[in-house]
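User: I'm curious what two different proteins look like when written out as structure tokens. Can you demonstrate?

Assistant: Sure. I'll show them one after the other, since each token string lines up with its own sequence. Here's the first protein:
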Amino acid sequence: MNERVESREGSSLAFFTEADSAEVVNARMAPDADQRLREIMSVVVKHLHEAVKELRLTPDEWLKAIDFLTRTGQICNDWRQEYILLSDTLGVSMLVDAINHDRPEGSTENTVLGPFYVPNSRYENGADINLDGKGEPVVVSGRVLDQVGKPIAGALLEVWQANADGFYDVQQKDLQPDNNLRAAFTADANGEFWFRSAKPLYYPIPGDGPVGAMLAALGRSIYRPAHLHFMVSAPGFDTIVTHIFTPDCPYLRKDPVFGVKESLIADFKKNDDPAEAAKLGFKGPFWSVNWDFVMAPKAAP
């Protein structure tokens, strides 16, 4: 008893008890350990122990949790990061992003990066990035602007999306051309950009792993609403990582990674004019979407 009293008055708790479990664990950290790491681990341990106590977890249930995390790691490979998928589906990726990208009103909002970003090859404005020819054609255009509407010349826009079968090129290296539906463009002197692609469709996130099994058990959808990924960067500005979504998708309110924001739902318009289609190199009706990205100045460190 005396030892417990002394420990509370200045020394570390010596022995583990249910009541003091988190305090005992956190007291074992060396005082010269990295201070930010100490802060993070103290909070994680505190809330993890609180959850275990609140739930009164059984050894069987905890072993199932360990098995789930083990299988999550085992399924990861060069192009599949199941832990990112787990973070996304628990809403943690969006929460971390929201905390770190509180931009001025009017700026383009961020959303999740997703697991399929890779550096993209440069193309000239107007290029057709739909290399497998699947899906309905779309022409995407817009501008990159600062907070007062001034064009940001030379801004880099990286874009990537899934094909009409619901897969990114890195998921089907033997079935899709390299860099299919993936490119980087440079905004011109007026901040303008444009390219041709395929109208995005909804698609399932990988459902054959532990994260997919978790969503199925919870009765949650595995379908991401139709979207185009964008990363927009320019010197002196906060990099935008975002999507634009089609307004007609049935999964806008069921996104398993919580990436949809109302301000990111775009207006895709159908165009049946044969002359307009011919000018763009399309053989029939096509879609068009115009979207401006508004960048905020990079915050001071």
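Here's a second, unrelated protein for contrast:
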Amino acid sequence: MRCALFLSLKQEKGSAVTGFALVAPLVVCMFVVVIQVASMLADRVTLTMAAQSGVRVASTLDGTNAQGRSKALSVLQSRRMDKQSVVTFVDEGRGGMHYVVCTVSSHRHIAWLNREITMTVQARAIDEGTL
């Protein structure tokens, strides 16, 4: 009985290696995709933080759009995204209220897809200087 059990385990050793060889490339590809998606989500969060910080500074009572742009660029610079990003500020009026709108967009190249992706984020705040 022991000999038969030992022989069957010896025969299964080759199929484990074959199974690993078939599954390993799929696991590595999935790992790379997960890392790339997480990196893109982190970049989007950085763009959102930059837009919100910039519009917050620009909408204060004594704030200007130039100060807001400077703040947004400093947030982007902390993640080394200031070179590929564009920050714009617009004053907007709706229904008697004046808003400051900040738009931040960034271009990113994804090598394994061979595609350019543009992420754009917008933040809006009520201009305190007009209240």
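A detail about the second structure: Residues 2-58 form the longest helix (57 residues).
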